[in-house]
Amino acid sequence: MKDLKKLDAYLDKLRIKERDGEERKIYAEVLDGRTLKTLYKLSAKGYITALGGVINTGKEANVFYADGVFNGREVGMAVKIYRIETSEFDKMDEYLFGDDRFDMRRISPKEKVYIWTEKEFRNLERAKDAGVSVPEPFTYMKNVLLMEFIGEDEVPAPTLFELGKELRELDVNGIFEDVLKNLKRLYREAELVHADLSEYNIMYLDKVYFIDMGQAVIRRHPMAEGYLERDVRNLVRFFGKFGVKIDAGEILSEIKGG
Hints:
11 strands, two-stranded antiparallel ribbon, 41% helix, globular, alpha+beta, single chain, five-stranded antiparallel sheet
């Protein structure tokens, strides 16, 4: 939205908690007119009570913190806003077109972003219902996804990558077992494959949380088994650096129940 006065008016309606020059610049960059209207509708429905600071920025999506209400309880929210004008989603076609839950015939790039947002919400729901440790999904609308904020005092929990060498001070074997337990539940109970699981999208806050579930595919996806093998190789590579002795073949067999 190029009209900054109009932008400020919408941001004021959304009750921005704090806004310095840098954050305002990011708001202006990601919050186009359509997205602002979507956020305002979610606010009017009572989900968002106050939009906070930036948690993460990326090529595909930006994530903001928000105070909100879900099922009558006050919650901290992660507001994930997928960019409508982005070329990155062309790289995601393989995760969408092999998923028979969605009709991908004759869709525009904008509609593809909307379907991706719905896909992440439905994947989170499916994983959560199966007992997988993921952020609780609250709702979605167009290119905006509201989910549980994982962190404390508006500071997001670190990923395993961000923990880095600090992992050595923790129970690395226990953390790996936690990851494996959730991976088995994801595959067996939710019948999903994450398809991009690595140290970059596993958070840790007393336990592990799988995040970035948009590309996760159902088990009957034609490339699901290849994605699962790649996920396991990523975990073997990462945890092997910390002395965890694991064999990819044995892990795959354990996940599948063989």
